[in-house]
Amino acid sequence: MTQIRTLVGTEYDRIYAWDAINPAMVRQWCEVMGIDNPLYTDEQYALTTEFEGIVAPPSMLQTWCLAGFNDVCAPGSSEENPYGVLKLLEAQGYPAVVAVNSELDFKRYLKMGEKLCYTTKLESISEEKTTGLGVGYFVTFIMTYFSTHNDGEEELVGTLLFRVFKFKPAARAESTPEVKQDPKPAAKVYKRPKPGISDDNRFFWDGCNQHELRIQHCTCCDKLQHPPAPICMHCQSFELDHKVVSGKGSIFSFVVMHYPEVPPFEHPNPIALVELEEGVRLTAGLIGIEPEDVVIGQKVKVEFTTYDGDLTLPMFKPVSG
């Protein structure tokens, strides 16, 4: 491993994008990902925004500089292989690989016509680690993306941290004799996970059991805050109690969870950031509405729902009219 570790810190030269950022690729990517933000596809709408035209979704960053068919890179790209270290690890007896995590950092939106390139740095190789998959090394790369200008200058537009685990697969346990199963085993019952309750938030969950939406209140500055905390986020006072609020509000933002499908939650699972009439926001599930019908600004009201006989949660449903 000594020779392999000498590669840590190596920076590999530029890989260039085949194509400039263009509306066709943006449209196709949005179609595949199920994104309908008009800022990315509607030129007339985008002209009315601060960007004065459509922009690319930030999470497309890695897409623009991918190699073509058969891993052919665009002209001018470096022929160095930054992932050669993985082949070296294979030669040391670590043949398997699994992606661990990927972290994208975006500096700004990218506009049509820009052309990108990126450099790669072998950031680190961990000490040998033992995991459930086997024994091996975590290898971390950092790709830095630039927008190239006609004058030869390059502007930093984002970074990508990518980590993989190169390992020797753990030996499988010897198979045990097959045990004859009940032809109709009882279905496993999944319950919703219960919240962590502490002295700081106990009042909130006690309120749910009483079908009251209780929000933490500072007696010094008379402001509300959520989620509950040991001190006031506004004036740092410890003099805190709670107020029962109306439970009425509107959807400030939302997501629809498709994967992973975790029982007993239904999927797709709409989750909203609700802005209450009293000015604070809280995250809660939505009920009584199809995921595709959720819109920002929609009026909602709390409805306390009990699951598994002992867990009462504040859910929100649309207000008719």
Automatic annotation (TrEMBL):
Provenance organism: Shewanella pealeana (strain ATCC 700345 / ANG-SQ1)
Transmembrane segments: none
FAS1-like dehydratase domain segment(s): 8-145
Residues of the ChsH2 C-terminal OB-fold domain: 244-304
Pfam families: FAS1_DH_region (PF13452), OB_ChsH2_C (PF01796), zf-ChsH2 (PF12172)
Name assigned to this protein: DNA-binding protein
Superkingdom to which the source organism belongs: Bacteria
Residues of the ChsH2 rubredoxin-like zinc ribbon domain: 205-241
